Amino acid sequence: MTPADIQETFNRHWKPGWGSVSADEADFIQSLIVQHRPRSFLEIGMASGLSGGLIASFMEENGGERFLTIDHDNTFFGDKTKENGFLIGDIYLGSQVSVEKRPFTTALDLQSLGQAFDMAFIDANHQHPWPIIDTLCLYPSLTGPKIVIHHDLRLFRKQDLVFGIGPKYLFDQFPDSHKKRSIANDGNIFFIDLSLGKDMIENIAADAFNLPWSLRTPMQSKYVDAFRGILLNYYSSYLSDVFDDCVKKFNMMDRFRSGL
Asked: Does 238 reside within a domain?
């Protein structure tokens, strides 16, 4: 799709308050699909389906075969009368790419799906440490170029009380050789290259976990337990121990405790 085609699609479907990628951010995603030609693509964070419809269209034009998009619920936050992903079928009109929507599914469920992905786009919970949790849950399922795109790098700068700093914390931990920030939307989207050794991935994750968490409410015990299980199955006990220590330090309601 040309940038003009993407902009026209965006103008036709987007409404204020609906979030989503901007047209130039979508073009950045397209450039990575053109470069790496993934056969399978995962999106974490379905929302309206605007980005999903565009990604499926990009995949169609570049030999893609499968697109899966998941979300933790099935109600679009921008319009409670609509299901997540309702725009995908309006935007993607091709037939080459198999499109699947899975509501009530998170990154914690990926291993149970038994699927592999060449590339992914994460635009879900931006509260720290969710972006790094989503990335670690995805890592064992990545094949091919192992490119993972993240959205809302600048979100924290727009918030009076900062919660959405997860993408920024994640970006900062990666070496320059394995990340790229786009100029699109004033630098609001980036990718990380996970073709690093597992030891380095674990060190990056450990540093990220030790940055103060920015959760609006504590992470539920069922999510803590599920993620701990993933760490024990696919990573070292060291990383699991770091995560447990950080749960004790940061997973609390009154995270703004007084003190020096």
From this structure: no
Instruction: Give the CATH number of the domain where residue 180 resides.
Output: 3.40.50.150
Alpha-carbon separation of residue 227 from 99, 106, 120, 127, 129 (angstroms): 27, 11, 19, 16, 12
Closest C-alpha to 163, from 133, 189, 190, 126: 126
- Domain assignment of residue 104, yes or no: yes
The domain total for the chain is: 1
Q: pLDDT for 191-219, tens place per residue? A: 999 999 899 999 999 999 999 999 999 99
Please report whether residue 183 resides in a domain: yes
Q: What is the pLDDT of residues 31-59, one digit of tens each?
A: 999 999 999 999 999 999 999 999 999 99
Whole-structure pTM value:
0.93
- C-alpha 117/C-alpha 66 separation (Å) is 9
Residue-number span of the structural domain to which 79 is assigned: 3-196
Whole-number Cα distances in Å, 105 to 98, 108, 113: 18, 8, 10
User: What tens digit of pLDDT does each residue of 150-168 get?
Assistant: 999 999 998 888 899 999 9
